[in-house]
Design brief:
Layout lengths: L3 E5 L6 H7 L3 E4 L4 H4 L6 E6 L2 E13 L7 E14 H8 L9 E2 L2 H15 L6 H10 L16 E2 L4 E2 L4 H10 L24 E4 L19 E4 L1 H9 L2 H21 L6 H9 L1
Length: 274
């Protein structure tokens, strides 16, 4: 398990200055040299004015000739975020104000890593929340697709599988924000994307994830539909669904084969006929 480190940048610095001069390197005093021996490949959270403003992974640690700050660490995979420090205290149940370079213990580190994973793989109980977040997602934050299904999270009455808004955003972008049943199905310009509004739909739905060995939440299994077609594929009679399913399955068959989801059109029909 990776450790989590808290790194305040100090009141004499600023977030803008950090972005300009320190987005790949940070210097620290010899006071923390012993701690640094544990820090390689750790997750570092940069803080300023009670806010966690950046997250990165330490890639290497080196010494320099600087008198005051002879220790340098370099990092990659940096992401600029905006999370109140109070949220971290609530997650870890630890009241230290973290004014110094601090390596968190195993338990606290795991709680924070779990929190960041949930931020990326949000459990959506309402489809409208999912569709809204897709529109606002940043395509540059897309993660590699995993073939292993995520474990479901238990809700009050049933379990939910995580859905990744970034993969859905990529699927909509690849479809050029058109309805894959009929590109003439235009709706309105979304304020989030400045494109024709469409919705993401998992062609092989999550209600059969427990029966399938590979992850259903991948871009090759996500189709772009206008809201009317999206409702139709969920709520119409089976005979009305069949033509839509045939169109979408054949259009995505090559991609479904890549991710081991080419289950056959008859199996897809069977899922939607229930």
């Amino acid at each position: 398990m990776k450790k989590v480190i808290l790194q305040p940048i100090g009141n004499d610095n600023s977030i803008d200055n950090f972005k300009e001069k320190n987005s790949k390197r940070w210097a620290e005093s010899t006071k923390y040299k012993k701690d640094w021996e544990e820090s390689k490949e750790a997750i570092v959270l940069f803080t300023h004015d009670s806010v966690i403003f950046a997250k990165a992974t330490i890639s290497s640690i080196e010494t320099s000739n600087h008198t005051k700050y002879p220790l340098n660490y370099y990092y990659d995979d940096i992401k600029f975020i905006n999370i109140p420090f109070s949220k971290l205290r609530k997650i870890t149940n630890f009241q230290d104000i973290y004014r110094n370079y601090t390596i968190l213990n195993k338990s606290m580190s795991q709680k924070i890593l779990d929190y960041f994973e949930l931020l990326e793989l949000k459990i959506y109980k309402k489809d409208e929340d999912y569709q809204k977040d897709i529109g606002e997602a940043n395509l540059f934050d897309i993660k590699d697709e995993s073939e292993t299904p995520k474990e479901p999270k238990k809700g009050k009455n049933k379990s939910y599988y995580p859905r990744n808004k970034f993969r859905a955003k990529l699927a909509l972008s690849r479809a050029a924000y058109t309805c894959e049943i009929d590109s003439n199905h235009t709706t309105f310009i979304s304020k989030a994307t400045n494109e024709n509004y469409v919705e993401a739909h998992h062609l092989i739905p999550f209600n059969v994830q427990s029966e399938i060995d590979y992850n259903l939440d991948v871009t090759h299994n996500i189709v772009s539909l206008c809201p009317n077609c999206h409702k139709k594929i969920h709520l119409a009679s089976f005979n009305d669904k069949k033509k839509m399913l045939d169109t979408l399955y054949n259009k995505h068959l090559e991609g479904l084969s890549i991710v081991h989801l080419d289950i056959g059109i008859d199996s897809l029909f069977s899922i939607y006929s229930e």
